[in-house]
Design brief:
This protein is 49% helix and 14% strand. With 199 residues, the protein is an alpha/beta fold.
Length: 199
C-alpha cells in the first residue's frame, strides 16, 4: 500500500506555510488522516548543514555554493526525515502534506545552472537492460551495484523516467528494435538527427 504525497511549493513570500496550515485545518475538518512534514527541518542535526548554508557560512550569495552541493545538503535532510519520521505513515497509506520537497531544488538551485536546449533520453526495455548490464559486468569483471541488482527498482525507474521525459519534453530514442538492441551506429545516427539542428 502507498499513501499520497501532496506538496505545496512556491516562491518565497507566496504564503506556502500559511496555506499548508490552512490545508491541514481543512483536512482535519474533512476527517482525513494525514501527516504534515516541513522542509528544511530546522533544529534537526540532518538539517544543520542547510542552516549553515542559508546563514551564509558556505558563501555570502546563493551563487557562491554550487547547485549540486546545495541540493545535496537538502537531500540529506529529506532522506533522513523520510526514513526516521514518515516512511511508515506513507507506506501504510496515509496522506502526507509537505511544506516544500524536492521541488525546492528546482525553484532555488536550477537558476544557478544552464538550462538544457535538448535532453535526449536513451530508452531500453528492462529485459535488454539487464542483459547489457550482465555483459558489461562480465567484460569488466565488476559487480552490479545495488541499483543494477534490483530488477523491480530498475523497472520502476524506467516507468518513472518515461513519464518525466514526456512531461518535460525530452526527446526519447528507443535503443531497441524487434526485441534486440540497435547497433551503436544506428542509435548514433538518430541522435545526430536530433542534435544537428542545434549546431
Amino acid at each position: 500500500m502507498q499513501g499520497k504525497l501532496i506538496v505545496l511549493e512556491g516562491t518565497d513570500g507566496a504564503g506556502k506555510t500559511t496555506q499548508v496550515r490552512l490545508m491541514a485545518r481543512r483536512l482535519e475538518q474533512e476527517g482525513v488522516s494525514f501527516r504534515q512534514v516541513n522542509f528544511p527541518r530546522y533544529g534537526s542535526p540532518f538539517a544543520a548543514p542547510v542552516e549553515r548554508y542559508l546563514q551564509g557560512d558556505l558563501g555570502k550569495r546563493p551563487g557562491d555554493v554550487s547547485a549540486y552541493a546545495a541540493s545535496t545538503l537538502y537531500a540529506v535532510d529529506r532522506y533522513a526525515s523520510f526514513r526516521q519520521d514518515w516512511q511508515g505513515d506513507y507506506e501504510s497509506g496515509k496522506l502526507i502534506l509537505s511544506d516544500r520537497y524536492t521541488t525546492s531544488n528546482a525553484v532555488h538551485q536550477a537558476p544557478k545552472l544552464p538550462e538544457p536546449d535538448l535532453v535526449i533520453y536513451l530508452d531500453l526495455p528492462a529485459e535488454l537492460s539487464f542483459r547489457m548490464l550482465r555483459h558489461r559486468q562480465e567484460a569488466t569483471h565488476t559487480r552490479a551495484d545495488i541499483h543494477e541488482q534490483d530488477g523491480a527498482y530498475l523497472r520502476a525507474c524506467r516507468e518513472s523516467v518515461r513519464e518525466v521525459a514526456a512531461r518535460l519534453g525530452w526527446r526519447r530514442v528507443d535503443c531497441s528494435r524487434e526485441g534486440a538492441v540497435r547497433s551503436l551506429e544506428d542509435i548514433h545516427q538518430e541522435l545526430w538527427e536530433l542534435v544537428r539542428p542545434l549546431v
